[in-house]
């Protein structure tokens, strides 16, 4: 916050508090010339207005509120850039700006501790680590092929999934357009436990260039899309698919294989099943061929750490291996 706005907010806040105090003082005095408890000379429908002062308890509560506000603003942040005498803050605003969210968070917590600052978020993280750290350590020491049979661990993994993964893959893990379904057996890079953990830890970046980076003319795209429809076992135009096969052999097979079954080493999809990340209609297939696709899953090792990723891996694996 700039110095101007800091001063503006500070002055405005103090003026409002002072205004409340003087307003309360003003209305607490009798300026009417009518003795307290006597009639003000107003009568409506049998109801007479008396010159009664503000209730003492109400006035005292108001004064207490003003004193409390001043003490609170002195101890905690609230007046512009003033940090308060307690050095309290809700969180470290520098988190996630340099190395990685988890690494930055740990560094910020250590710095706040050295400087004697009271950061509420840091305190909550430390209490959570003290309570749940041993639990995650025990899970991390358990081989994945054993952890997938631990019901409590899978429940924990499910909660971590909802907090961190459901935004893309959905709360039911069935994904959406451009986001893989994790409950089936179709895996771009492989569905083994070790492969799933590698994917979550390091992320994935999949990219198909427009036309696969091959010398394919726009006039060939329709036939190529028809050939891919044929590969997936659907009704197709045989003559058009035959033309598309020639286009496929220009180089599409280098990633998707001669038979179109894909390549998990490269993350190239299997074109012979009916599972489509972006959609399997002829129009969508043609769009994919023409414009290419680019997808990215971020790495979670610096966000959650390996112990939590270990538990999520077991949960994700359990979704497609009941």
For the biggest sheet, the summary is: 2 strands, antiparallel
Shape field: elongated
By DSSP (H or I, 4+ residues per run), the number of helices equals: 13
The CA-CA distance between the termini, in Å, is: 53 Å
Pick out the low-confidence regions: 95-99
In total, the number of strands is: 6
Report the C-alpha radius of gyration, rounded.
Answer: 33 Å
Q: Indicate the structural class.
A: mainly alpha
Q: What average pLDDT do the residues reach?
A: 90
Q: Can you tell me the CATH architecture of one domain? A: Orthogonal Bundle
Question: Can you give a write-up of this model?
Answer:
Helices cover 52% and strands 7% of the residues. The protein is mainly alpha-helical and 322 residues long. Among the domains are: 105-140, no CATH class; 144-203 and 299-320, Cytochrome c-like domain (Cytochrome Bc1 Complex, Chain D, domain 2), CATH 1.10.760.10; 207-297, Orthogonal Bundle (Cytochrome Bc1 Complex, Chain D, domain 2). It has a two-stranded antiparallel sheet. The protein has a two-stranded parallel sheet with strand order 3-4. Strands 5-6 form a two-stranded antiparallel ribbon. β3, α3 and β4 form a beta-alpha-beta unit. α6 crosses α13 (306-320). The radius of gyration is 33 Å and the shape is elongated. 18% of the residues are buried.
């Amino acid at each position: 916050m700039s110095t101007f706005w800091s001063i503006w907010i500070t002055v405005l806040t103090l003026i409002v508090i002072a205004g409340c105090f003087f307003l309360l003082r003003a209305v607490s005095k009798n300026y009417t010339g009518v003795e307290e408890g006597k009639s003000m000379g107003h009568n409506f429908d049998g109801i007479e207005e008396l010159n009664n002062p503000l209730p003492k308890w109400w006035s005292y509560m108001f004064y207490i509120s003003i004193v409390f506000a001043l003490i609170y603003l002195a101890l905690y942040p609230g007046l512009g850039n003033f940090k308060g005498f307690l050095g309290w803050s809700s969180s470290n605003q520098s988190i996630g700006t340099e190395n990685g969210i988890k690494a930055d968070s740990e560094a910020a917590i250590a710095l706040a501790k050295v400087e004697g600052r009271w950061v509420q978020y840091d305190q909550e993280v430390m209490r959570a680590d003290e309570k749940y750290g041993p639990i995650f350590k025990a899970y991390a020491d358990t081989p994945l092929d054993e952890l997938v049979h631990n019901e409590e661990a899978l429940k924990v993994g499910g909660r971590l999934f909802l907090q961190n993964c459901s935004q893309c893959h959905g709360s039911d893990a069935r994904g959406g357009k451009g986001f893989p379904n994790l409950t089936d057996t179709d895996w771009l890079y492989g569905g083994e436990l070790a492969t799933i953990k590698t994917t979550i830890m390091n992320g994935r970046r999949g990219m198909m260039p427009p036309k696969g980076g091959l010398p394919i003319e726009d006039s060939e795209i329709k036939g190529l899309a028809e050939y891919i429809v044929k590969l997936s076992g659907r009704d197709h135009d045989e003559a058009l698919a035959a033309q598309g096969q020639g286009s496929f052999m220009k180089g599409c097979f280098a990633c998707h294989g001669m038979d179109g079954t894909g390549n998990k080493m490269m993350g190239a999809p299997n074109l012979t099943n009916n599972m489509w990340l972006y959609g399997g209609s002829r129009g969508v297939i043609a769009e994919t061929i023409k414009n290419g696709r680019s997808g990215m899953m971020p790495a979670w090792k610096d966000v959650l750490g390996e112990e939590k990723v270990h538990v999520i891996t077991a949960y994700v694996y359990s979704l497609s291996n009941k």
